[in-house]
UniProtKB/TrEMBL annotation:
Family annotation (InterPro entries): Ig_CFAP47 (IPR058952)
Example of a GO biological process term: sperm axoneme assembly
Domain of life: Eukaryota
PANTHER family: CILIA- AND FLAGELLA-ASSOCIATED PROTEIN 47 (PTHR45912)
Pfam families: Ig_CFAP47
All copies of domain CFAP47-like immunoglobulin-like, residue ranges: 86-226
Entry protein name: CFA47 protein
Signal peptide stretch: none
Gene Ontology cellular-component annotations: cilium
Length: 256
């Protein structure tokens, strides 16, 4: 699932670089962990001189091997690698949220987590707190192959910081429900999306969902704000030819 090439006996000249390819081929939507270990020794087999090998500090002892006759025989570097699988990018039709400027809409958005049925599922459990009345819904916890400990993180990502500054304060998204189909094992997340634009705009965004046990899904979205309604109609009656007619009205700024 996670593979790294072996470079046994590889010679490196001073200040030479060595690229170590790491291949990641996940078959399950979960986090994978591995370590890349690099052990370096001198080509002639001699030790690096060190004045007091027996008094190496604690941090240094974990990264070097000391020779029998003193000195440092080898140096070890350990690099942890975390692999997070991402669902294949599909040509999904963007979810369109449309609203007239200076209005507010709330829409229900359902997303299917493809491949989530391969995630590790908890065993069926049913627990009741007997210290308090069992009719309290918060005290009764029942799961059917979908542990309530499985959490999902989500956020809206934008193509640029400029779009984020324009759209970020106008959009709110909240996860209200999650469902797992018992037969297929597919997981569906249901979001509530609020859009309250203050002027006509048309911007794209991406809903990114990440499971704490591993897996990332991305869903395109399109936010469209149409022109607002006309505030009022100003009629100016002429008092005569070549004479000015004046009408006064107040404008109030909605911001500072």
């Amino acid at each position: 699932i996670m593979m790294c090439s072996v470079f046994a006996g590889t010679r490196l000249a001073p200040k030479e670089k060595l690229d170590i390819p790491v291949l990641f081929m996940p078959d399950t939507m979960k986090i994978y962990e591995a370590v890349v270990v690099i052990h370096v020794m001198r080509e002639n087999g001699e030790n690096w001189p060190y004045e007091d090998s027996a008094a190496l500090n604690k941090d240094l002892k974990s990264s070097v091997t000391v020779g029998e006759n003193g000195g440092i025989h080898g140096i070890v570097w350990i690099y942890p690698v975390h692999g997070t699988p991402e669902a294949p990018q599909q040509k999904l039709v963007p979810a369109v949220i449309r609203c007239q400027a200076r209005q507010r809409v709330e829409r229900r958005l359902e997303v299917l987590l493809t491949g989530a049925n391969a995630m590790p599922a908890a065993r069926n459990t049913a627990t009741v707190n007997t210290d308090k009345p069992a009719n309290n819904q918060e005290e009764l916890q029942v799961t059917d192959g979908f542990s309530t400990m499985v959490e999902f993180l989500y956020e809206l990502q934008y193509q640029s910081n400029e779009i984020k500054s324009q759209l970020g304060a106008l959009v709110g998204i909240h996860l209200i429900q999650r469902e797992r189909d018992i037969e297929s094992g597919n997981i569906t997340l249901i979001f509530s999306v609020v859009f309250a634009p203050n002027k006509p705009i048309r911007n794209e965004a991406t809903l990114v969902v990440e499971c704490t046990t591993g897996g990332v899904w991305k869903f395109p979205m399109l936010f469209i704000a149409t022109k607002p309604e006309v505030d009022d109609v100003i009629n100016i009656e002429a008092v005569g030819l070549n004479k000015e007619s004046i009408v006064g009205f107040k404008l109030t700024s909605q911001t500072r």
